[in-house]
């Protein structure tokens, strides 16, 4: 409904037909009021935005807000991961979905022996390439969007902490500072390899020593002592795990977070006997 302001709808006494020019009874007609202008007092019609432009603006705003939320949640709180291999059996199984929490990492809570960590593998496991500074991989890492590339992640258990002396005896287990580590609650089987000195690291795997700078200029006959800011990581499936006994020590800066929850696991159907009468 259009409306007028008072200056347009009410004439003043000076505009009265009886007083124009200051003489009563003059036949001079009164000037007509200005034509009303809708919507804007200035008389200019404001063009309405096109529907397509408004829709495009809303889509862009939605995408930006979604990306900001994704980055904030994945960086500050947690992210979901799935298990692609059997290296952590029986604790974690193939296709398990786990939640990786990151709050404790931001609070600088020290890592403890026995914790399960998710981390970016050392460059030696990626053919010597460090993808941490590649913009495409950084964006994929921050958002987790499936169409962006991002570094694969490993998941292993913390076995050795900085300053620990570690030794693995075939068929027996892992020794930390001379004491046998009790691991019967979570390992699949005892290791079938020995790890006594630095030179033993990688001898059972495919990664050569030149791919690990920390082992290139040291005496390989020395005991395995974990350097500062490093961890020794091992899979619970000791004989089917590409872990620290192959590629060496893990830099703590490569840790993504702590595995805290299995929120989905594929359940296998029960195995029925071939012959119901015999039970076999």
Write up this protein.
With 280 residues, the protein is an alpha+beta fold. It has one domain (63-264): Umud Fragment, subunit A (Ribbon), CATH 2.10.109. It contains five helices and eleven strands, in the order H-H-E-E-H-E-H-E-E-E-E-E-E-H-E-E. The chain has helices spanning 6-9, 51-76, 103-106, 135-143, 244-247, and strands at 78-82, 97-101, 116-119, 154-160, 165-169, 173-176, 179-180, 224-225, 230-234, 250-251, 255-264. Strands 1-2-11-3-4-9-10 form a seven-stranded antiparallel β-sheet. A four-stranded antiparallel β-sheet has the order 7-6-5-8, with no helix packed on it. A hairpin with a 3-residue loop joins strand 5 (165-169) and strand 6. It is globular. The model is unreliable at 1-26 (pLDDT under 50).
């Amino acid at each position: 409904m259009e409306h007028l302001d008072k200056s347009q709808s009410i004439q003043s006494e000076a505009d009265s037909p009886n007083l124009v020019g200051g003489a009563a009874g003059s036949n001079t007609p009164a000037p007509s009021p200005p034509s009303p202008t809708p919507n804007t007092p200035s008389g200019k019609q404001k063009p309405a935005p096109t529907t397509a432009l408004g829709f495009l603006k809303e889509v862009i705003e939605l995408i930006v807000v979604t990306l900001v939320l994704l980055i904030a949640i994945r960086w500050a709180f947690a992210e979901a991961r799935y298990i692609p291999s059997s290296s952590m059996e029986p604790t974690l199984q193939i296709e398990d979905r786990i939640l990786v929490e990151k709050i404790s990492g931001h609070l600088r809570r020290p890592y403890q022996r026995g914790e399960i960590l998710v981390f970016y593998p050392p460059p030696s496991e990626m053919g010597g390439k460090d993808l941490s500074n590649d913009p495409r991989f950084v964006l994929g890492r921050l958002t987790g969007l499936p169409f962006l590339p991002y570094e694969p992640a490993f998941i292993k258990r913390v076995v050795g902490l900085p300053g620990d002396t570690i030794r693995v005896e075939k068929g027996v287990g892992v020794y930390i500072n001379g004491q046998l580590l009790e691991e019967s609650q979570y390992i699949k089987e005892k290791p079938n390899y020995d790890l006594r000195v630095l030179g033993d690291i990688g001898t059972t795997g495919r990664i050569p020593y030149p791919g690990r700078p920390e082992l290139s200029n040291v005496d390989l006959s020395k005991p395995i002592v974990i350097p500062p800011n490093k961890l020794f990581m091992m899979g619970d499936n000791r004989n089917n795990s590409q872990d620290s006994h192959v590629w060496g020590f893990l830099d703590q800066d490569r840790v993504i977070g702590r595995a805290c929850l299995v929120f989905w696991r594929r359940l296998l159907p029960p195995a029925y006997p071939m012959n119901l009468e015999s039970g076999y």
